[in-house]
Write a structure and sequence with these properties.
By secondary structure, this protein is of the alpha+beta class. The protein has helices at residues 2-32, 52-64, 91-111, and strands at 41-46, 68-73, 79-84. Helix content is 57%, strand content 16%.
Length: 115
């Protein structure tokens, strides 16, 4: 139980805060860039999250991160569709980064270390 509490605090006050700062900085750079080199688009992200709490936390984390917004959860609750202000060149890298930085820590909170 203490491990899950620690994981929740670590996520909220370190991992998510770090992602929030990095995303803000990336959006500022894009906005101030004279060429505004962006590739906006929709990306489907496969989810390991299954419970209402896990899915909602993951979707809200994406939406709270500047430059991204959650737009749809598939009916079978296995995919989350998000819009990104800049998808970059590698959509799979974006998917994996989103899962690693936002979904995985949530699952550590809800399921413990051995999720």
């Amino acid at each position: 139980m203490i491990g899950r509490i620690w994981a929740a605090l670590y996520y909220a006050f370190f991992l998510f805060l770090k992602e929030l700062i990095l995303a803000n900085w990336a959006v500022v750079k894009l906005v101030l860039s004279p060429r505004m080199p962006i590739r906006p688009g929709f990306v489907a992200v496969p989810m390991d999250a299954r419970t209402d709490f896990e899915i909602t936390s993951f979707a809200n984390s994406i939406t709270l991160t500047p430059g991204t917004i959650s737009v749809h959860i598939s009916d079978d609750r296995t995919l989350l569709v998000m819009h990104a202000i800049d998808t970059g060149d590698d959509l799979d890298a974006l998917r994996q980064a989103t899962k690693a930085s936002l979904e995985a820590p949530i699952l550590r909170v809800t399921r413990g270390k051995n999720r």
